[in-house]
Amino acid sequence: MAGPVPELTTRAAACAEALRAAESVLLASHIDADGLTSAAVATTALSRAGIDHEVAFEKQLDADAIAGMASRAFDTVLFTDFGSGQLDVITDHEAAGDFTPVVADHHQPADAETEFHLNPLLFDLDGSTELSGAGTTYVLARALGETRSDEPRAAGEAGANRDLAALAVVGAVGDMQDSTGELVGANRGIVAEGVAAGVLEETTDLALYGKQTRPLPKLLEYANDVRIPGISGSERGATAFLSELEIDLEGENGWRRWVDLDSEERQRVASGLLQRAVARGVPADRIDDLVGTTYLLTDEPAGSQLRDASEFSTLLNATARYERADVGLAVCCGDRDEALAEAETLLSNHRRNLATGIDWVKREGVTQADHLQWFDAGERIRDTIVGIVAGMAMGTDGVRGDRPVIAFATKNETETKVSARGTHRLVRSGLDLSAVVGEAARALDGDGGGHDVAAGATIPTDSKAAFVEHADALVADQLGEA
Ligand code: C5P
Ligand code: C5P
Ligand code: C5P
Ligand code: ZN
Asked: Do 124 and 25 touch, CB atoms closer than 8 A?
């Protein structure tokens, strides 16, 4: 990866130098899978480099949160998986001498600049598909692993911290950067380094979520990314399909999972699914989506929640989005006892909330505006997961898969959380939800941002209707439907 974007590596070396020069560092990160893995990559690299630091998580990096950090006795603040969008506020503090900021992020930068700002978007890389927060932090960790920044290693010589590539991939997958079926761009270089370091394995496999941990019928029933008529959404259909293929559903230890099948059985199920999809008229490009690249963490046991990068990232969301980022961080940093057990309990709760949330959206339905669709979950869906629910609901019954969806959830007495989700197809047609949500929110005394394909905001609760109207017009402009 050093090859295609040397500027990123050079900037990372400068950031590493700033961290080495610090007395003490406050490491602040975002509370989702990418933010947690970013924090884990950073704290590991800082510790290995002997740099004193403390870790803090924020649900949202607003002016108050940044002021709180400024009031603490750290001379340097390292922001990971956020910071770029708030660079204007951050540089005000820098100018006031409150702290030296180092930012490793992949979100749209605000209109300001600072010396130690590492972001793929500054180097012509796409921050929503080519490099995540954890990937950007991994580039910084590699630089921290170099003993002397003025003496780069010989080409081909692997430096320290390459084992952290596995966490960087979990972060990228957690931000759904593999939604075209595999990781692309600078992420590919990270995968290659992880494979070379022996911590990652990539395989071409069925692109269904839950291959390590879900019972076989559930694996097929819940596969709504590519809907297969008669199987998706139907426990009976999924079970009957597997029985027709003469796949034993139960093994010695209860329900069999995909990992428990031998390669011949996997082949049988995969071809069966493809045949069924063709027979039921699923379009060819959707059928292609059934197969993709799976990223496995070689140090984790088969069948564990941490083996597959996508399942690992869900486990992390289950901690961080419920104010237990400490648990997820401990798991990332290697705690396989107490923290893992606690994370698994949080995960059952998260799964239940996602399922209830999606059921609620399907039952209540969404409202179609002219160019987008929206729903208001009020207090029924937690504001920290309403975006995940919105994304998962797209394309299911009653929720169009070809229009952006905007979701509202109550944040507090006066404010509402907005989450917006689109598709890569819509982005190719001009959609940029970061701009839509940011502009519409700022026009209404709120603020927001994010990525072209997924964005969020906080707005005053009494401006929801105005927000929809504003966002609708912006989407119309972007898609040339005005
Ligand atoms: O903080 P931000 O980068 O962390 O969060 C990304 C969010 O956007 C995640 O919840 C992820 O699920 C969502 N996303 C998405 N589709 C994409 C890319 C990201 O729903 N293609
Ligand atoms: O929770 P997270 O954002 O990591 O979910 C990523 C994707 O994994 C979802 O969009 C969904 O397709 C899948 N998922 C699922 N069942 C769950 C959790 C996640 O199918 N319980
Ligand atoms: O919260 P949600 O999952 O909907 O966030 C989607 C994306 O929007 C994330 O990348 C998040 O960092 C960003 N976001 C933002 N400002 C907000 C809320 C979310 O930039 N106020
Ligand atoms: Zn991120």
From this structure: no
